[in-house]
């Protein structure tokens, strides 16, 4: 697929056929992540390819538990409705043939640490020293989404399930300084007529300074 065709036609897919993606394709997709840019080339990521349905079920149940715990703390009808919607928005990964967990290993920046010691306001520091590690994870995830699409697969970048990130660490037996930062279910799209949501026009998002 041509590069711009890949970009123009990629869209989030939330329902997949049960067919197992080929291992050669999965490797190509992870390789696209491996080659992404990362801040100071730290490559502080790992990509766990989960084929095991029991593990996926455990992860799904931990997300539901996390939302239920939240509801116990804030038991209000409209919130409960919202949470029920969020439960399905956060757990459909269990129906994908493959689930990729993107794992970030924590790293610190000297400059940020020094600025914290100098009492720079956290609200300002957030923009002066953005979380470059998190941005790197995003680059890898987008590379994977595009590679998967170019190979005929659908994905959905998922952050909502991270409400259960502590449970994920234990289920996936991660090291202490590593955590799941996103999930990417992967599979052949169940249908081929899913619609893309409306995107802002180029005019709305682009500004030229002459
Ligand atoms: C950082 C990030 C987190 C997301 N988390 C979720 C999620 O937890 N569940 C979900 O169904 N979609 C999630 N999405 C998918 C977005 O809803 C989707 O990208 C957006 O609606 C635009 O649609 P498109 O990807 O088809 O262009 C996430 C996307 C991004 C970039």
Description:
It contains nine helices and four strands. It has 210 residues and is of the alpha+beta class. The protein has one domain: NADH Oxidase (3-Layer(aba) Sandwich). The chain has a four-stranded antiparallel β-sheet, sandwiched between helices. The two termini are 35 Å apart. The model has no long low-confidence stretch (mean pLDDT 96).
Provide key terms for this protein.
210 residues, globular, binds flavin mononucleotide, 48% helix, alpha+beta, four-stranded antiparallel β-sheet, NADH Oxidase
Q: Supply the CATH superfamily name.
A: NADH Oxidase
User: Largest sheet, order of strands side by side?
Assistant: 1-2-4-3
Order of helices and strands: HHEHHEHHHEHEH
Helix content: 40-55%
Report the bound ligands by name, code or SMILES: flavin mononucleotide
- Beta content comes to 5-15%
- Integer count of domains: 1
Distance between the termini: 35 Å
Rounded mean pLDDT is 96
Structural topology:
Blueprint: H1 3-9, H2 23-34, E1 45-50, H3 53-73, H4 77-91, E2 98-105, H5 110-117, H6 122-128, H7 132-150, E3 154-155, H8 165-171, E4 178-187, H9 202-205
Antiparallel strand pairs: 1-2, 2-4, 3-4
This protein binds flavin mononucleotide.
Flavin mononucleotide binds next to helix 4.
């Amino acid at each position: 697929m041509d590069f711009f065709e890949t970009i123009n036609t990629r869209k989030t897919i939330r329902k997949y056929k049960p067919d197992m993606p080929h291992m050669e394709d999965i490797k190509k997709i992870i390789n696209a992540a491996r080659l992404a840019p990362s801040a100071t080339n730290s490559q502080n990521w790992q990509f766990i390819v989960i084929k095991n349905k029991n593990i996926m079920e455990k992860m799904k149940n931990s997300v539901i538990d996390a939302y239920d715990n939240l509801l116990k703390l804030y038991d209000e009808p409209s919130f409960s409705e919202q949470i029920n919607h969020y439960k399905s928005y956060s757990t459909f990964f269990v129906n994908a043939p493959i689930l990729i967990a993107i794992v970030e290993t924590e790293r610190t920046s000297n400059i940020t640490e020094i600025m914290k010691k100098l009492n720079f306001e956290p609200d300002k520091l957030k923009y002066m020293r953005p979380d470059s590690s998190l941005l790197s994870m995003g680059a890898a995830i987008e590379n994977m989404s595009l590679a998967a699409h170019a190979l005929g697969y659908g994905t959905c970048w998922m952050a909502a399930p991270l409400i259960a990130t502590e449970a994920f660490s234990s289920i996936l037996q991660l090291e202490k300084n590593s955590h799941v930062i996103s999930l990417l279910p992967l599979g052949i799209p169940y249908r081929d007529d899913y619609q893309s949501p409306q995107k802002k026009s180029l005019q709305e998002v682009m500004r030229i300074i002459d």
